[in-house]
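Worked example 3. Consider a protein that binds magnesium ion.
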Amino acid sequence: MIDYQSKLFAKTIKEFPKDEEAINAKLLIRAGFIAKQMAGVFTLLPFGLKVVNKINKIIREELDAVGCQELFMPAFQSKDLWEKTGRWDTDNQVMYQMKDRSGKEIGLGYTHEEVITEMATKYIQSYKDLPKAVYQIQTKFRDEPRAKSGMLRGKEFLMKDLYSFHANKKDRDEYYEKIKEVYKKIFKRIGIEALVTSASGGTFSKYSHEFQTISESGEDTIFVCNQCQSAINNEIIDEYGKKCKDCNLKLNQKNAIEVGNIFKLGTKFSEALGLCVADATGNIKPVEMASYGIGPTRVMGTIVEVNHDDKGIIWTKETAPYDCHLIQTRNSKSEIRNKFKSQNIQSKTENIIELLEKAGLDVLVDEREGVSIGEKLADADLIGIPYQIILGEKTDEGEIEIKDRKSVQSKIVKIEKIVDVFCPQIY
Ligand code: ATP
Ligand code: MG
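Given these inputs, the predicted complex is written out as structure tokens:
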């Protein structure tokens, strides 16, 4: 897909927003990926939506590959349902709760265990119906007290939530380990390091596992073993101790961002909401459950926190809004000066666009008139697409300059070889 920069709805902004503290918010707003409506509430602009869609595509591919099925649940949730688990009253700080015109009390979902478990009673009645796993990627609402971290902590944000149902603990535990591996794959493809971190299991079980990305801006404190990379959340460090159990080495304290969290829920929800099955001998038992979350919008903010420099964002290859940024450095002055050369650049551009389009690549073309070369290059660095194809008068006919945003290295490539550059084994 090819987009032309002069036609875009959003634009880069000259100055950093004054009211933002978080690096991800500053850069994403300035580069035209998000727009703030109020604290913790953002629009995903076309660039931002492309990034989130790429993250979601990776999540979907990896979950679908292990047999999870996608559905989409409502954000409105009835009080009755939440009273059955007792969470209407205990969680009223985080859950937005309101009344409709008839006086009926409803809440906005900040998680979906209640909804999915009650719904599952319609379809799961026997152990033969198990195991099952369903997920959604949906907007969640949380009345967060400190929404100052841009995309890291929204009052309205995207969550991928997966729920699995099992006939017994053994099956549930095996599945939990399987999804843990799937999560590792997802974060690897996204291009961020996410350490599996033992954490509190909240009200559900003793422990849960978080996926934590080390970053100065992280709100969590974790202790990491440099040898085996295992990590422990500060919240359980007193139980665990500050030495790695396997390597016997001192753990190092780090700030980190929680990008994912997986929980063994046990039978807390299935008991409360009557999700029971008959086993082979006819005994009725509550279903064993687990839930698994990833925050795609928080992941987007995390990528920016850990991949940027003083010039702007550096997207990872699989999450960049476009595969490459084609920058025409012809300007009106040079056009007058050298009509022949500028025509050359135009036909070169068209030629390259055709090659890239044929290869199925997503390209942003900066063909803006009246914008200086310096401004175009600065914008390209701010936006952070991994490869910049710079089309200027410097290179000979039949050749182009490709700059790697991350290493800042440029190389001259023959036009017909251009597509090869985007194959990872070459760069
Ligand atoms: P935190 O401790 O940071 O408040 P949490 O533990 O309450 O998060 P979970 O309920 O485990 O969050 O949610 C699953 C995932 O959803 C998190 O791992 C995170 O990636 C994402 N997430 C949670 N809260 C937010 C938020 N306010 N804004 C953006 N993403 C969020
Ligand atoms: Mg969590």
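Take a moment to read the result before moving on. The longest strand covers residues 252-266. The chain has two domains: 2-73+112-312, 324-426.
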